[in-house]
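Anyone? Bumping this.
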Amino acid sequence: MQLTVAQKIISEHLVSGKMISGEEIIISIDQTLTQDATGTMAYLEFEALGVDRVKTKKSVAYIDHNTLQAGPENADDHLYIQTVAKKYGIYYSKPGNGICHQVHLERFAIPGQTLLGSDSHTSTAGGMGMLAIGAGGVDVAVAMAQGEYHFTMPRIVKVNLIGKLNPWVSAKDIILELLRRVTVKGGVGKIFEYTGEGVKSLSIPQRATITNMGAELGATTSIFPSDEITFNFLKAQKREKDFFEIKADDGAIYDEEIEINLSQLEPLAACPHSPDKVVPVSSLKGLKVNQVVIGSCTNSSYGDLVRVARILEDKTIAEHVSLAVAPGSKQVLSMLAQNGILASLIMSGARILECACGPCIGMGQSPSTNSVSLRTFNRNFKGRSGTLSAKVYLVSPEVAAASAITGYLTDPREFGLKDYIEIKMPKTFLINDNMILTPVNNYEEVEIIRGPNIKPFPLGKPLSPEVQGKVLTKVGDNITTDHIMPSNAKLLPYRSNIPYLSNYCLTPCDRDFPKKARENRGGFIIGGINYGQGSSREHAALVPLYLGIKAVLAKSFARIHQANLVNNGIIPLVFENPKDYDDIEEIDELLIEDAISQVKSRTIKLKNLTKDKEYKMILDITLRQREMIIQGGLLNLIRSKGKGKE
Ligand code: MIC
Ligand code: SF4
């Protein structure tokens, strides 16, 4: 049978199930990654599974999110992760070494292998031809303990790239174009697989920009074939032995097909407050810009920053602009420093930040009130920058750099640089893995250090026969995990402290939500379309669990969030008739009778006691997930079946 790249990798790793879209499958996981904002929970959950060592070929713990240390909390979390990593055979990438996805691409990603990461942008490694999936912390904990991952076989979308990018049009514009067409909910349940003659013209970091932002489509993952460009990248990283060629068979069958003609693209921008509100940069001409930030796991590679530096060379940023640059990794920053290019950035007025997520997750550099911020990042959700009134536009590094100079949103084709700046991939990157601590043999002697900020995580309870409670809040479409569990410099230090975080749950939508949840001892949340889009943060389920949320009723769910709810024993119900959404109001009293037998079926009867009505709700989850709901979550399910096993 002729197979696509994704199907080849899945079939090679298939432990059970059939590779038919919509069927539950189990695949073996070769590698895992965690970062520090999700890592503390993931490792607490891993410890609860009671195994001695990770079962993967390679697991890596990165510190890249919570690097502003305004108190001991973040440093305590880092120390916990460092010691837990040492104890269980996990590589540890120290703070300063770079953003997990950039470093993973450089030093660990392997074509043809599988990667599960507790971060939604884990798909970045798809640029290397790896099947790389973002998931909640407990799924990653289980993958480390058992070497496996359960998920629903996605539909495979062929993205046929034809033509070649014109000068000043960038890989970012390819994925922005796809977001414009498909939207932030259009990728749910799908893998985007890139093919066509256009693939050859894209470097690995460019491919990784595209697979990275596949997360914004809501996709399960995105993947490129591996070819001689992949080989050359690996060779330049002195990892040619990791190369494995993988391409789709002629005649492979895809579920859907999209074509993008690269030659017809122009510089694009995603407008506030969603990555799919995409328009041509030329249509925003004259927009005054107050801040420009270049970096994040989407656009902080060596090539990206060299081009930025060349645009900024011998120029000064506009008087009213603040420019910040966060290189993606120590490798990128040290290469810029070594060849002197860093000086062009500094001389132009750029504020050089450490190699970390930084402003992307609101860790510093919040823009001023009502200002316009251009960012090369992947998300521009309202308030994510740390400034609620800021208007954040997502653009390519080229647009960002040109605009920093002019002070207005600028199409780089009109910036006045005569020639396009071609960047050649270096023959060899500067390689020094001294910030990656490797697993040790004498792990029995390692003592895990837990600071006072690390609190136990809430554990779901077995499902009660009657699920009853009030509607605590009703929110609209496309609610992000940044709404459900906001993250910023003030809250991120408490990622291992669920009781503290619970004071902020859903507050961007409903300031009184935590109070109402406490007063009513939990209840129900009502959401619209694509509820829980965005990050993989499990906290968006753990915190509602802590507040006693029993079920979320929505028009549809984002993939990772739905899995996180189920993993924590919260029932994700979809309105069979979306009009019922309009009928339910806050404070209505809802009841699921005979819940244990009802969750075994696809349709659930939900009573509105206040209005004396009954709604049909769909519970579209797998058999194993139904068991999870009954047992009160994944950890309880595993425990019920014996240590570390299912
Ligand atoms: C994000 O970009 O929102 C994050 C922060 O990287 C999250 C993970 C988290 O919330 O810790 C993600 O994308 O999964
Ligand atoms: Fe970090 Fe931003 Fe990438 Fe998330 S999207 S991993 S916060 S750089």
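Late reply, but here is one note on the structure posted above: The CA atoms of residues 111 and 130 lie 5 Å apart.
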